[in-house]
Amino acid sequence: MSDLLELPWHEAKSQASPREYLDACFAAIESHDPQLHAFLHVNRDAAGDGLPIGIKDNIVTTDMPTTCASRILGSFTSPYDATVIARLRARGAAIVGKTNLDEFAMGSSTEHSAFGVTRNPWNPNCVAGGSSGGSAAAVAARMVPAALGSETGGSVRQPAALCGVVGVKPTYGRVSRWGLVAFASGLDQIGVVTKTVRESAEVLGIIAGHDEMDSTSSSQPVDDYAADLDAGVRGMRFGVVREAVEQLTGEVRGNFDEAIKVLRGAGAIVEEASVPTIGYAIAVYYIVANAEASANLSRFDGIRYGRRSPNARTLAEVYSDSRGEGFGAEVKRRIMLGTFALSSGYYDAYYGRAQQVRARLRHDFAQAFAKFDFLITPTTPEPAFEIGAKTNDPLSMYLSDIFTAPANLVGVPAIAVPSGFAKSGLPLSLQITASHFTERAMFRAAAAYERETEFWRTSPRA
Amino acid sequence: MKIDREEAQRIADLAHLELDDAALVRMAEEMTKILTYIDQLREIDVKGFEEHAGSQPTPFREDGVGVGQALSLSRQAGELALHQAGELALHDAIRRNAPQWSEGFFVVPKVIGGE
Questions:
Q1: Is the pLDDT confidence value at A99 over 70?
Q2: Virtual CA dihedral for A388, A392, A396, A401, nearest 10 degrees?
Q3: Any idea what DSSP says for residue A348?
Q4: CATH of region A2-226+381-457
Q5: Please, are residues A114 and A328 in contact by the beta-carbon 8 Å criterion?
Q6: Residue pLDDT, tens place only, A122-136
Q7: Which of A3, A20, A27, A359 counts the most CB atoms within 10 A of its CB?
Q8: Rounded distance, CA A409 to CA A171, Å?
Q9: How far apart are alpha carbons B115 and B112 in whole angstroms?
Q10: What is the pLDDT of residues A391-425, one digit of tens each?
């Protein structure tokens, strides 16, 4: 049974009936999830002849609660399905369960979940990354062939990298966010975690496309993302982002240099690129994202849904006590930072300044994409870290997203592909970033690299 | 940027967050550290980038019959029973998620003359 789950979905489905495959998923969840805690809810009655899939628990579903890994949502169950869920169901997908995350997707380790940490399948003493840590761990441990996550600053790619699986963030506006609980509306985008690039392309093809319920969703036609997967990268131009890579040391550096050799060996042109402002992305991100979050999270006030503080006597206390008791420390920190950045007297110096630097970052990326088809960096500056290593130092946790946050600020697609292993046995990852709406070419490049390396064949369960 | 305890309290009030004294002190320290890192944004030359960076222009669409209008049209067209069944199911889902609910309304502590 476990061999079946080691195969990519497109191969497995010809070797077993949908029921057998789904049962294998439930059996794997039963044996691995008590240790890993990738899932917050599992729906044993989930049915469907198509892809079994896990869903990050900030995407609403009618048949399971949606908690955002927060106590403030109580036992909330949505009266409607998110558009991505409706599209998956229409294609026969079985919504197997809801996966763990940092509360409201705010974090890089899933340690900020109100319901306990998700452990890394390669080493249970290490984090699975975040915020979509449950989705990444569920796929890496071969419990489900695919899972949806959401990204605001790297929350799909970073945990995918730390768990040794493929994570894609599409172009801003490519996937409808109707039913995704909003964090930072100018950055949020739903992404996909899978073992292989082909599965990633296929799942994105199902969920992508315009939706009249989300006015920020693009009406550009959806490409056939799997069409060019075998076409190779001969003659394609890859830019190595100098300002990101020059700080790298040790194993991550060595692994990245190997990846460059692999791409060159496949016929790609790999040269140095420059994005001078890339190092400022985290500073920009923590102003822009938190400012938007402070506004979006004002809806959690204990009035219409979720948990209301039993201690509140006045309406003002209903708001402040419900929020004070319901939100965890990291969510409060971000609401505070965002409220500060938007407050009278600081708006221009912080929010205004951050938006200007963001505009310059977009300009710098556009300049680089005038010369290159893709930009490459490692996905993360280091492999998975130990549980507890960064929880007392929010800033060092934020810097885990230093290579991923730029794509969210600029709105371009990016993909994390397994690139091998550190001496500790923990996975490493290559990030390929492409220009707006060129996912098809990006999948082609990622597939070419994957074909040369095939790191996905190594399983943490081996 | 230095945030002291009083400034942290001012921001917590703006954000409707109840924080105890120890939490306020810790929050002020953490915010000071994070904002000091963010202050590096002052170094960058942003001349020519004064416009805010939206990812896309605001999308517009032609006027047309949307979901809400379709519901009211179906009501006019005599599909009242079907419409009411859908509305009742939605009503029920909202009621089940409400912390306090009575006779079709969310209940909150008395606002006028209550304190």
A1: yes
A2: 60
A3: I
A4: 3.90.1300.10
A5: yes
A6: 999 999 999 999 999
A7: A359
A8: 11
A9: 8
A10: 999 999 999 999 999 999 999 999 999 999 999 99
For residue B38 the two structure tokens come to: 């963010």
d(CA A294, CA A282): 18
Put simply, whether A295 touches B (Cβ < 8 Å) is no
Taking only the tens place, the pLDDT of each residue in A170-222 is 999 999 999 999 999 999 999 999 999 999 999 999 999 999 999 999 999 99
ipTM entry: 0.93
pTM of the model: 0.95
**Among the partner residues B50, B59, B61, nearest to A216 by beta-carbon distance:** B59
Is residue A16 within 8 Å of residue A4, measured between CB atoms?
A: yes
Residues 239-278 of A with CB under 8 A from B: 277
**Alpha carbons A158 and A120: distance in angstroms, whole number:** 13
pLDDT digits (tens, 9 = 90+) for A6-65: 999 999 999 999 999 999 999 999 999 999 999 999 999 999 999 999 999 999 999 999
Chain A residue with Cα closest to B88: A79
pLDDT at B111: 86
Would you list the domain boundaries of chain A?
2-226+381-457, 278-358
A423 touches chain B (CB under 8 A): no
Per DSSP, the three-state class of A433 is strand
What does DSSP say about strands A189-194 and A146-151: parallel, antiparallel, or unpaired? antiparallel
Tell me the mean pLDDT in the region A140-168: 98
Cβ neighbours of B90 in A, within 8 Å: 79
Residues from chain B that touch A211, judged by Cβ atoms under 8 A, are: none
Nearest residue of chain A to residue B92 (CA atoms): A79
Q: Do B27 and A336 touch (CB under 8 A)?
A: yes
Spatial contact of A399 and A316, defined as CB atoms under 8 Å apart:
no
* C-alpha triplet A93, A96, A141: angle, nearest 5°: 110
pLDDT of residue B75 exceeding 70: no
Alpha helices in A266-314 (DSSP H): 281-296
Tell me the residue type at A2: S
